[in-house]
């Protein structure tokens, strides 16, 4: 049970929730929410004009709304802002999104009623899957359009998912034993101001990126064995004199993964002085990706425990103050940086695939298949990897350097943070597929070095791959092999097998 207290949510907590863990509001959050709402109710009693409570929104901020129209104002806001387009966010991302929104509201700066925050948590725990199109946010004033789609479903309107089918949201809520929420002054605005959509998409991608950083070391070690390289470049003394943390961690992983190798023992003193950069410099390339992900995670975990509403309720002063905490620039820059870093894992992986497939760069048969010509082997698998790497280059154009004026120039600088998060997600998926192709190619290369065996920590990994993908003796349908390798990476089982021999993969 993950506590949504607005202060302590971590990336790991968020992934647990996305994967099905339940969440709850602690008593401290309930108290903060009630105190915040009391300020809004007091403003309404005094009939004080305050943006977001009894005015229009954006460029309509100067329009005062009569008290008998305040509830309609909130419903109008949600309906009109539900203008997203494109593919629907998957169930895991929606679970992360709902948890993030509840966590922000739990801080007690939004003026929403407790029962509506509890309704968010109840929907999460019941497995409610709202229909939220992924396109339409410019990342300020937060993720307005996609968050409005969530709120629309919570009031029982629009469509939501029941399994794989879209059905009326009210029917889906009732089937789960949930009731549609009602909205009072400021509550619609409280549900849609914030950076939680970009955080949900980018956060889950960040978790996956960390897995890829570890797999890059593991799979790179397999490629080095197939290419009969040396582990001398991973000697800790080299890295201690350039002590970037990520570089040192990667070098340590590679050193331990490659210990006790029959293949390496067989070519000691062969006369080869240095390996290519894509092998020798793995720590210097994989390591900076790790350092980047560490930096991005620190920004991310601050953001998901921050108040991102507008206006913000400061209960101690009995005051609402307008500001701009909904602006997604922090996450936009971070996710752009993360996408570039993860793309580099794919870039160097594709270079290793080239070396495995190109007989002028190795002692292996062309395209890793006997009887080449009759059989094409890994020829087009490498092309697929090259295609994915090139696609990543386009996706790594930073979304955060763009802006466009919206809302009649009231919102005249925006972050494009949700686009940055989506690009980061797509780069991560592409990079995982490139690494899957390298995994297949590296293990296939080892077939031609038998009976010599790779390092002890890699033998179980090779055996696991061979449980799901047979050696490539002649041409066959390739795409299913790539999918099977990608699923092994997603599962994390290969890291676990290696760790049983050489210790934890950092």
What descriptive keywords fit this protein?
mainly alpha, Fumarase C, Chain B, domain 1, Fumarase C, Chain A, domain 2, 2 domains, 5% strand
Layout of strands and helices, then pairs:
Layout: E1 2-3, H1 11-18, E2 23-24, H2 27-46, H3 70-81, E3 85-88, H4 91-105, H5 114-126, E4 129-130, E5 133-135, H6 144-154, E6 159-162, E7 165-168, H7 169-175, H8 187-192, H9 196-226, H10 236-240, H11 245-257, H12 262-266, H13 277-280, H14 282-303, E8 312-314, E9 319-321, H15 329-357, H16 379-395, H17 417-447, H18 456-468, H19 479-491, H20 493-502
Parallel strand pairs: 1-2
Antiparallel strand pairs: 3-5, 4-6, 6-7, 8-9
Helix pairs in contact: 1-4, 1-9, 3-6, 4-5, 4-9, 9-11, 9-14, 9-15, 9-17, 11-14, 14-15, 15-16, 15-17, 16-17, 17-19, 18-20
């Amino acid at each position: 049970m993950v506590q949504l207290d607005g202060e302590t949510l971590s990336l790991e907590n968020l992934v647990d929730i996305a994967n099905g863990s339940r969440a709850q509001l602690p008593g401290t959050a309930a108290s903060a929410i009630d105190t915040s709402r009391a300020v809004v109710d007091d403003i309404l009693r005094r009939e004080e004009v305050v943006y977001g409570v009894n005015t229009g929104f954006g460029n309509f901020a100067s329009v005062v709304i009569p008290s008998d129209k305040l509830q309609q104002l909130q419903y109008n806001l949600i309906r009109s802002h539900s203008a997203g387009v494109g593919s629907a966010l998957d169930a895991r991302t929606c679970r992360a999104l709902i948890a993030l929104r509840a966590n922000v509201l739990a801080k007690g700066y939004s003026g929403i009623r407790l029962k509506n925050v509890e309704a968010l948590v109840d929907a999460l725990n019941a497995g409610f899957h709202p229909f939220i199109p992924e396109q339409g946010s410019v990342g300020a004033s937060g993720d307005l359009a996609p968050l409005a789609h969530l709120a629309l479903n919570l009031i029982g309107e629009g469509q939501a998912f029941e399994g794989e089918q879209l059905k009326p949201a009210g029917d889906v809520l009732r089937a789960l034993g949930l009731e549609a929420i009602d909205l009072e002054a400021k509550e619609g605005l409280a549900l849609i101001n914030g950076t939680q959509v970009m955080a949900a998409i980018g956060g889950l991608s960040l978790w996956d990126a960390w897995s890829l950083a570890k797999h890059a070391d593991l799979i790179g070690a397999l490629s080095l064995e197939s290419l009969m390289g040396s582990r001398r470049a991973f000697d800790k003394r080299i890295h201690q004199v350039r002590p970037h943390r990520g570089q040192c961690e990667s070098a340590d992983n590679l050193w331990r993964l490659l210990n006790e190798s029959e293949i390496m023992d067989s070519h000691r003193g062969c006369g080869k002085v240095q390996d290519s950069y894509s092998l020798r410099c793995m720590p210097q390339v994989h390591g900076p990706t790790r350092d980047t992900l560490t930096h991005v995670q620190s920004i991310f975990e601050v953001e998901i425990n921050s108040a991102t509403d507008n206006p913000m309720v400061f209960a101690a002063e009995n005051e609402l103050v307008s500001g701009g905490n909904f602006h997604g620039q922090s996450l936009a820059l971070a996710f752009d940086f993360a996408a570039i870093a993860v793309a580099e894992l794919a870039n160097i992986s594709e270079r290793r695939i080239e070396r495995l497939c190109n007989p002028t760069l190795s002692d292996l048969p062309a395209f890793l298949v006997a009887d080449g010509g009759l059989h094409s082997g890994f020829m087009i698998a490498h092309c697929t990897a090259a295609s994915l790497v090139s696609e990543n280059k386009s996706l790594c154009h930073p979304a955060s350097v763009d802006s466009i004026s919206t809302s009649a120039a009231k919102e005249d600088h925006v972050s494009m943070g949700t686009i940055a998060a989506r690009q980061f997600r797509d780069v991560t998926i592409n990079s995982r597929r490139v690494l899957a192709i390298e995994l297949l190619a590296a293990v296939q290369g080892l077939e031609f070095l038998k009976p010599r065996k790779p390092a002890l920590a890699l033998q179980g990994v090779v055996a696991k791959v061979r449980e799901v993908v047979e050696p490539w003796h002649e041409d066959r349908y390739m795409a299913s092999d790539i999918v099977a390798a990608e699923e092994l990476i997603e599962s994390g089982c290969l890291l676990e097998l290696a760790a049983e021999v050489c210790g934890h993969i950092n």
